Amino acid sequence: MQISKLDAARNQLRTAIWLYFHEMDPISIHALASAARMVLRKLHVHHKTGHKMLHDELIDVYVKAEYRGSMINVLNSAANFFKHADQDPEDVYHFNPKASEMVMLDAVFAIGVLGAEDCDEFRAYRTWMLVMFPHLLKELPEGISEATLASARSVGRREYFRLIQQQIAALASRHQGPIGGRES
Known about the structure:
- By secondary structure, the protein is mainly alpha-helical.
- It has two domains: 1-117, no CATH class; 119-176, no CATH class.
- The protein has eight helices and no strands.
- The chain has helices at 5-21, 26-47, 54-62, 68-83, 99-113, 120-132, 146-153, 157-174.
């Protein structure tokens, strides 16, 4: 089996998001999302896209130069704890699973810039983050009201994922031509 770095990151991120929506193991979610995010970060540097990962941008803008290394260590601490045991085999980590949400969002934006094929998991996650954190946006997308967002929040993420997959499938079937291709 041959696989590119971009495809590996895409698969890791899709799996992390699927696990997230199915309310599965938060450690696996974070480990997969962080691994994908790190590969994507390196790909952006390699391809000189100019895209900055969310936490890199925040560090560059808000953190004094002498504290940047420490801040990066803090931001990467959960991912590093989950994948290494060489220096701290007996340590215990106090993990906040909510941290994975921003890691996944950062990776979903980064993978899109690299031109990876979009998928149901990425679409669902982008809209879920809009539903859960509308206050982070300068303005809501046209046609979306706060009442619509509140209604979506009320169903929970597992049910939301099921519903969004149905909507995506319905939209896709409406755009198919008579022999399975796109209508012109």
